[in-house]
Amino acid sequence: MARSQWGSRLGFILAAAGSAVGLGAIWKFPYVASQNGGGAFLLIFIGFVFTLGIAMMMAEMALGRAAQSGAVGAYRKMGGKNWVWVGYMGVLVGFLIMSFYSVVGGWTIAYIIKSVTGEVISADAKHLGSVFGSFVSDPVQPLVYHALFMALTVGVVLGGVQKGIENLSKFLMPALFVMMLVLIARGLFLPGALDGVAYFLNPDFSKVTGKTVIDALGLAFFSLSLGMGAMVAYGSYVSKDTSIPGSALWVVSLTTGVCILAGLMVLPAVFAFGFDPAAGPGLTFITMPAVFAKMVGGQLFAVVFFILLMVAALTSAVSLMEVVTSFMIDEFHMKRVPAALSMASLMFVLGVPASLSLGEWSGYTLFGKGVFDLLDYTTSNILMPLGGVLLAILAGWKIWPEIHAQLGGDRGERIVWMPAMKAISCFVAPALVGVILVYNNL
Ligand code: TRP
What we know:
Layout: H1 9-20, H2 23-35, H3 39-67, H4 71-79, H5 84-117, H6 125-137, H7 141-159, H8 162-188, H9 193-201, H10 210-223, H11 230-235, H12 244-272, H13 283-293, H14 298-332, H15 336-356, H16 371-398, H17 400-406, H18 418-441
The structure holds tryptophan (TRP).
Residues 19-20, 22-25, 97, 222-223, 225, 228, 230, 316, 319-320 line the site of tryptophan.
Transmembrane segments: 40-63, 83-113, 143-161, 173-194, 214-237, 249-275, 295-318, 339-362, 382-400, 420-439
Family: Belongs to the sodium:neurotransmitter symporter (SNF) (TC 2.A.22) family.
Keywords: Membrane, Symport, Transmembrane, Transmembrane helix, Transport
């Protein structure tokens, strides 16, 4: 049976960007950059994105198209049975990410409602901080929204409304872009905002530690949806005549663009309103309402912003859920409905302690981290980079001729960077990521 394919190159780029652009860029990037001192972090992040990031993106897509199957099948077919477990690990990572991702997805829904009621339309930093704090630490409310977000995701995966979502993203992605530009423009005129811009753009290398480097690496993998096989599945639907390098460059650039815009949107507001730059996961949720409060029609902007954020999160969540669901279908011959429902229920259950760890259960920690942080840290900073290294080794050492052919072979225009791609796969990725992983985790 012929595998279904994306309608066009643009459709492929948008779908892959829809998976990549999500909470990683808009929620996680600003607070992680902010916690890590701003400018220097941004440079290191960009460095990773345009070397390892782009190379791994191309390798995943090429692997998928060469094998004509999703991650587990692709590793089995191209690598042999010793490699299958890299595919399994990807499924596990998808499962773990989704369990806390949908908790944050739930926050976006809650903030749509809080914007409608006006609860968060305020320029009072203290008030906004306490609204967020008491919401996420509440034992019941976030769980209700968590369930709601999970149900929406399953609804899309089961209802087969992916096409609908894809078409919707064609409008929502540009809308998100424009919205961010408007918010940046407003934010920059707030008194004190330029300190935030300086913090974000001026590299201060004295702030760089091992943690900065591993956080930048982990965030690069997380926000580009790399290291767990999602892009392998996407690559398997790419038609023969679509250029993978060109598409990958677009996806990586778009996602990085949104990350940078998110930083420019959030950090000036942090400084203008005197929030704590090290505030953590609440940063986007706490600071943006303060900017809305200073805008004409701010409440409307707030509602639209959180809706866009929710949809961006949903398009990413759908791709995570799809990886896990299709694994259960392919490997255990489950039917689609029970596969999606059972996995979603399990993810929901795992999300419960993640959510509670921000409140009632904050006392329960392992290695100094609560469940939420532990899930986030292990997936982004350990398992995804590890998945990336293993993929690089497979691509560079074992199946390079296939990867090379998928990337356009020896056609003139490619020759310039092809050796770089091979060097990254064979040496740079394994060595660099290996050193960072060992240094940070031993
Ligand atoms: N990139 C997504 C975001 O930034 C989250 C994500 C991480 C993801 N890994 C993934 C999405 C794998 C799909 C597949 O929000």
